[in-house]
Amino acid sequence: MAKTSILASEAQHFGSLAGDWWDPKGASAMLHKLNPVRLGFIREQLDRHFGLDECDLKPLAGKSALDIGCGAGLLAEPLARMGAKVTAVDAAPELIDAAKAHAGAQGLDIDYRAGEVAAVEAQYDLVTALEVIEHVADPHDFLKVVVSKLADDGLLILSTPNKTPLSKLLTITLAEGTGRIPRGTHDYDQFIPPEQLEEMLAAEGMEPIETRGIAFSPTKGLHLSEDLRLNYLIAARRV
């Protein structure tokens, strides 16, 4: 637990994007397009896991959420609007500063923290780490810490690129190559196939309950799919 999960180069890279993080046409434009898809999956899993009313506008009222690798708050803010008491942590102080400023302007009370998730002491009903595990020093050690922050009856949701020729082509060769994603954002060697991530979760006493792909098509754009080749989300609970 004493080892850091943070790679300084990754924190510096993402910190450099803080200035226009909330610009839907800026350097983080792809995250803005990805976010509604991720939120759809999260809401679906929340309703199923906690037995919530799918029409409830504040389904997380009375529940706590921890968003790991929160950036400047693209996920943390919707979770707060859903009624959760949100703690959000990121390795880049610049992103946390941007997150605090944006949340303040929106009138949202979110506990933003810069640094290690290991320093967070509480446990949470919902823990999310979206597009994070491929950017850490040791995925196994990172996942162990992540799971330790989950309440016994809580829900964990992860997302990450699959390690396939298609993900390399679309995410790195095309998206980074054409500037749609900032160059250097991804390292294909760090990508994790879903079966490997499911094994890692099982080793930490977690049961994957749903795995869905995020696919792309010219007609639908980014959307939830049974096709896991590009990117995928996993929901898991304690065994």
Describe the overall structure.
Belongs to the methyltransferase superfamily. UbiG/COQ3 family. One of its GO terms (biological process) is methylation. Pathway: Cofactor biosynthesis; ubiquinone biosynthesis. It catalyses: a 3-demethylubiquinol + S-adenosyl-L-methionine = a ubiquinol + S-adenosyl-L-homocysteine + H(+); a 3-(all-trans-polyprenyl)benzene-1,2-diol + S-adenosyl-L-methionine = a 2-methoxy-6-(all-trans-polyprenyl)phenol + S-adenosyl-L-homocysteine + H(+). This is Ubiquinone biosynthesis O-methyltransferase. The two termini are 22 Å apart. This protein is 34% helix and 25% strand. The protein has one domain (8-238): Rossmann fold. It is globular. The protein has an eight-stranded mixed β-sheet with strand order 3-2-1-4-5-8-6-7. It has seven helices and eight strands, in the order ααβαβαββαβααβββ. The protein has helices at 8-15, 29-50, 76-81, 93-106, 139-148, 165-176, 194-203; strands spanning 64-68, 85-90, 111-114, 124-130, 150-161, 206-217, 221-225, 231-238. It is α/β, with parallel strands linked by helices.
CATH homologous superfamily identity: Vaccinia Virus protein VP39
Kindly report the CATH topology: Rossmann fold
Class based on secondary structure composition and strand pairing: alpha/beta
Helix content: 25-40%
N-to-C span = 22 Å
Number of helices: 7
**Average pLDDT rating:** 95
Q: CATH class, please?
A: Alpha Beta
Proportion of residues in β-strands: 15-25%
Strand order of the largest sheet: 3-2-1-4-5-8-6-7
InterPro entries: SAM-dependent_MTases_sf, UbiG_MeTrfase
Function: O-methyltransferase that catalyzes the 2 O-methylation steps in the ubiquinone biosynthetic pathway.
Family: Belongs to the methyltransferase superfamily. UbiG/COQ3 family.
GO molecular function, one term: 2-polyprenyl-6-hydroxyphenol methylase activity
